[in-house]
Amino acid sequence: MSLYLQIALFVASLLTFIFVISCSKKHKMNIKYSIVWTLWSLGIILISIFPQIVYYISNILSIAVAVNTLFLIMIFLLYLLSFYLFLKISLLNEQIKNMAYEISLLKKEIGNQNE
């Protein structure tokens, strides 16, 4: 891994870490999500400081270039994050549907009491 890539990864992950912490302090981000993003940025900081981790994973997976391993790791983590967010969206859609049913039942009860 080139020094330029290491520095770019470190700076980007450090900025992400600072941004997530500031959003958490200002209560703009839920604590569950801030933990995920904090761990994500700390993992990238760790990889940028110790690129031997990427070389070790490259050797295990028989990937010739370490940068390709880094891309593979990032794509996999983004895939997991995407799946998690779609799961949350599905749960929220179910809650919205249930709340709409409850509101319509309450409106019907209120309408029946007014008559």
Describe the overall structure.
The chain is elongated, with a radius of gyration of 22 Å. Helices cover 88% and strands 0% of the residues. The protein has 115 residues and is an all-alpha fold. It has helices at residues 3-25, 31-49, 52-61, 66-114. It starts with a helix and ends with a helix.
Which class of secondary structure composition applies to the elements?
A: mainly alpha
Average per-residue pLDDT, rounded, comes to 87
What proportion strand? Answer: under 5%
Low-pLDDT stretches are none
Level of helix content?
Answer: over 70%
| N→C terminal distance | 75 Å
Label this structure with key terms.
mainly alpha, 4 helices
Write the layout of secondary structure elements.
Blueprint: H1 3-25, H2 31-49, H3 52-61, H4 66-114
Helix pairs in contact: 1-2, 3-4
In short:
This protein is 88% helix and 0% strand. The chain has 115 residues and is mainly alpha-helical.
